[in-house]
Design a protein that fits this description.
Order of helices and strands: HEHEHEHEHEHEEHEHHEHH
Strand content: 5-15%
CATH topology of the largest domain: Rossmann fold
Structural class: alpha/beta
Oligomer: single chain
Number of domains: 2
Bound molecules: N-carbamoyl-L-aspartate
CATH class of the largest domain: Alpha Beta
Length: 320
């Protein structure tokens, strides 16, 4: 694959399918450049300051602050609107909220998180939309920048930021059906050459799992010894209609990254989690904070990956 340090231009980044493997590698290359520059104390400025609108209709710590940090590090102005405190709380529609922001803030890029699946795609397709749309999570559908930062983390750790992810076996375990992180990662990591296995209780597997480019397993202990990386997912309590049945799953015993279970991983194999963690459920404290954990690296890489995406969307807007 071609390594390139020239910026990528994207019209929107709503789903992993919006970018080719070559574009993904180019974004990862830009992200790595931003990390190296930051370590060297180099700051970026823009002759005309681009404006980034953050529009968050669901709670967020990592994604929101890393997009904000990314935009500021690129020399952009940032405006934040959350559901609480905006007219969305008075019942204003998403369309009307975005139209208002386009007319007041006139952003180059809108970073949006919303509970409705395909809401970011919907906005990106409106004839009145003038901004590049970055999907920061739409319902249970996709979270493409999380997949990009996870790919950056794996590529940095196992491949020293060169080439693709061919030869890596990544296991994703947990609440697959409600996880936008799982869907985006399944597609991006396999596009980049990794082999992905998902592990979940049957009630946490999506009906269309046969269409995903992954292997499916039900016993974590069978696959964990072969994994280079195991990514635990948060149980999405806020998206579960009834919690009945969760306790009967013995979740931690069967699917948790416990100290005993991770001790059977290959030397050098790593654990990941997109956060926020249910400590003691999906992952034990000693694993989350232990030597195999890349969780803090993932958080840091979120800044560099999102710088690459924001830069690409600004370039895409200027190219229109
Ligand atoms: C994820 C999300 O919101 O989809 N968090 C994140 O962005 N790092 C995962 C989660 O909430 O479980």
């Amino acid at each position: 694959m071609i390594e390139q340090s020239t910026p990528v231009a994207l019209t929107h980044f709503v789903e992993v399918a919006d970018i080719s493997a070559e574009q993904a590698i180019a974004l990862l290359h830009r992200a790595r450049l931003f990390e190296v520059e930051a370590d060297a104390g180099i700051t970026r400025t823009q002759p005309t300051r681009s404006v980034i609108q953050l529009l968050f209709f669901e709670d967020s710590t990592r994604t929101r602050t890393s997009f904000e940090a990314a935009a500021r590090r690129l020399g952009c102005d940032v405006c934040l609107v959350t559901e609480k405190g905006s007219s969305a709380a008075k019942g204003e529609t998403l369309d009307d909220t975005v139209i208002t922001l386009l007319n007041t803030v006139d952003p180059d890029v809108v970073v949006m998180r919303h509970r409705e699946n395909h809401s970011a795609r919907h906005i990106s397709q409106q004839p009145w939309n003038t901004a590049g749309i970055a999907n920061a999570g739409d319902g249970t559908n996709e979270h493409p920048t999380q997949a990009l930062l996870d790919a950056l983390t794996l590529r940095g750790h196992f491949r020293d930021h060169t080439g693709d992810l061919a030869g890596l076996h990544v296991v994703i375990v947990g609440d697959i059906v409600r996880s936008r992180v799982a869907r985006s990662n399944a597609h991006l990591l396999t596009n980049l050459g990794a082999q992905v296995t998902v592990v979940a209780p049957s009630t946490m597997l999506p009906e269309d799992i046969d269409l995903w480019p992954v292997a499916v397993a039900s016993d974590l202990d069978v696959v964990i010894a072969d994994a280079d990386a195991v990514m635990a997912l948060r149980i999405q309590h806020e998206r579960i209609d009834t919690e009945a049945g969760l306790e009967s799953l013995d979740y931690r015993e069967r699917f948790g990254l416990t100290v005993e279970r991770t001790a059977r991983m290959k030397p050098g194999a790593v654990v990941m989690h997109p956060g926020p963690m249910n400590r003691g459920v999906e992952i034990d404290d000693a694993v989350a904070d232990g030597p195999r954990s890349l969780i803090r690296v993932q958080v840091r890489n979120g800044v560099w990956a999102r710088m690459a995406v924001v830069e690409a969307l600004i370039a895409g807007r200027h190219a229109r």
